[in-house]
């Protein structure tokens, strides 16, 4: 498809322009202070964008559903519970909160272990439908959410302010060491997943057709679920819960590129998320001068788009 | 040759397929017939490895089908189920190209393209190969899926009720194509059918199931008679011979 190539090139150019704008506008010669900080922020946004776009598209393919995000597995809720529980038990001055490195690894490990446990118990039987896994994920997620709310009600109001900080994703104080660690994880995970993209294409034909064509359906689904859990866990531990965002970029990419090829739709979703994150952050810093965080705007626009998708799906069926 | 040995599948407490022994003869059309819930589709799913059996085995050239690598098996046996829902937009050609996946892993060679062209030609889909599946009628879509299975180029082609929701014209069209697959290309076709007249006119052999057991198994002419059909369907079905075809007149059966 030549037209898709043109689209991708245009999006790449747009991203380049936005990145240059974001990094160099109003720099005022502050090459030693502002420049490295802005570059780290761009890198953090790129990582988050890539991780969420990739995880969401693969997750939607294996669940045969275009209005789900991996957050349905309860990873976001678990992240919030971990943060709230740490502040509740140890206080906001605890090293577990103050050391971003420690906090990152605790959240990451908790989420990955949770996902693996969930899959382990769910995939014992052969050919268990994935909807069962999703339902259990929703229930566990709701349970964790209620537990979090319970702790938040009991918590000291001053401490609650700290919890609230964690509730919204923010790129404003990303630790530069963490970005490099996250980069390693994301690149490694995607490299593993990239070899399976052709098989994901076949998965869109449904379980029976995929197996007929010699694809190890259960194996691919399992690998992809674990990979997307690791990606979501990494991005959430890095900047906070922002998975709703994946829904928007994945669907924009399907509409824009209109192909079954995952190499294209995933690339498209990644490009859309880079545009949205870097462009959005630029608007927030230079237009709203930090008066709001990006995730508030993303959730606002994402919510509207979600309603549009629901209406469209209900009309077509 | 595919040999089914003592195959059993249990859902809950019900034995859906109950110690079934069947041999699929190469180079023939074998029809699975029987009342609703007889276990025809389940049997087909187990033969094609879509479903695991609870006991018993399926042998392909005297080795257990479970021993095959997924990819190797997909080059020898293909299956098409009834419901084929998708949430992506595919053109007919893209769908048929998927049939080459076991060989090319998604990177089509010129050889693969040739097979796709042949399959499209075989199913009379060349002119509309770039239309999207969701714009097609049920019959055209069914033909597109069968073209995918033809492109897969397997010795065995298993089809689960391919005539479902098709009108007479399209049903006949598809049955004639299956006949050609066997007569011209030497394939082996196994098909689950509801309309016994299609089974009677087009198949070489018939396997009749009832309550998970094989009640009749043999050449078509041995099965299509009033006595056998009574055992299978509990109906009194007169047979009329028209142009050398045995037609079961079941519409007004007492």
Automatic annotation (TrEMBL), chain A:
Pfam families: FecCD. InterPro entries: ABC_BtuC-like (IPR037294), ABC_transptr_permease_BtuC (IPR000522). Its main location: membrane. Coiled coil: none annotated. It is a multi-pass membrane protein. GO terms for cellular component: plasma membrane. It is found in: Cell membrane. GO terms for biological process: siderophore-iron import into cell. One of its GO terms (molecular function) is transmembrane transporter activity. It comes from the Bacteria. Keywords: Cell membrane, Ion transport, Iron, Iron transport, Membrane, Transmembrane, Transmembrane helix, Transport. The chain crosses the membrane at residues 6-27, 39-57, 77-97, 104-123, 129-155, 176-195, 225-252, 264-284, 290-311. Belongs to the binding-protein-dependent transport system permease family. FecCD subfamily. This is Iron ABC transporter permease. It comes from Kurthia sibirica.
TrEMBL record, chain B:
Keywords: ATP-binding, Cell membrane, Ion transport, Iron, Iron transport, Membrane, Nucleotide-binding, Transport. It is a peripheral membrane protein. It is found in: Cell membrane. It holds the Pfam family ABC_tran. GO terms for molecular function: ATP binding; ATP hydrolysis activity. Residues 2-236 form the ABC transporter domain. One of its GO terms (biological process) is iron ion transport. Coiled coil: none annotated. The keyword Transport applies. Gene3D superfamilies: P-loop containing nucleotide triphosphate hydrolases (3.40.50.300). GO terms for cellular component: plasma membrane. PANTHER family: IRON(3+)-HYDROXAMATE IMPORT ATP-BINDING PROTEIN FHUC (PTHR42771), PETROBACTIN IMPORT ATP-BINDING PROTEIN YCLP (PTHR42771:SF3). This is Iron ABC transporter ATP-binding protein.
